[in-house]
Amino acid sequence: MLNRNDLLHLLINKIKTSDEFNHLSTQDQNRLESALNQQFLAPDLNQILQEEMYDEIDEAFTILEKKTFQIKISIKGAKPPIWRRVLIPNTLSFHQLHEVIQTVMGWTNTHLYSFHGSPGVFECPDEEYEFRSDSARDSNTSIIGNFLVSEKDTISYTYDFGDDWEHQILLESITWNQGLTFPVCIKGKRNCPLEDSGGIHHYQHVLKVLSNNEKMDEDAQFFRERFGDHDPEKFDLEETNELLKIMYLEDEMADDY
Questions:
Q1: pTM attached to this predicted model
Q2: Which of 33, 56, 138, 187 has its CA 20 to 30 A from that of 243?
């Protein structure tokens, strides 16, 4: 069920993607968006939106026209860049998008996560803490196509709140291809860092140390033992798509029970 903030956010997105809005100058677009965001918080809107409207409104916004999103997932701060380009249905939930990211990047799905940015905050409720953010929406029930609506829209994704692996999700293009049944990775560069390797800056420090074969101090020897089998340049597109198919089939089987 949509709450008031969900509804108002969706209405603002509808305005921003309208032909009338796109025909405005950039300055007028910015002024209108600022005014809309200010009104978003106006307390008198609570008097306008009545609870009995929600069933009808929720149905209107959750029945989406099926489209294909081309997204680019990049680990922030990685040099050279670590990224994947993926085709996904716009009807995925944010939790399903999390599973796609885990699979195509090569993470092991052993830590908590959060999506955050102008579309809002989306988290999977944790048994102990419920949500980490007071403004968070449930990632299991929030559909990405209701919040990412225009090409070049972005949202951030954080995985593992200890290492804080930050990713940028960029909506590169939208097509009307409705034949996409499950996500497909079409390109990518470089291997995913190892889990629990200290975050992107520490990971890059490790790679720098390992690139110097003459370095033989205690840290270098520890890193060689810990990262000995890790190839930072490896990325196998065919294997990645096989893993996506397995993930999809497992989700389908789970839905049948």
A1: 0.73
A2: 138
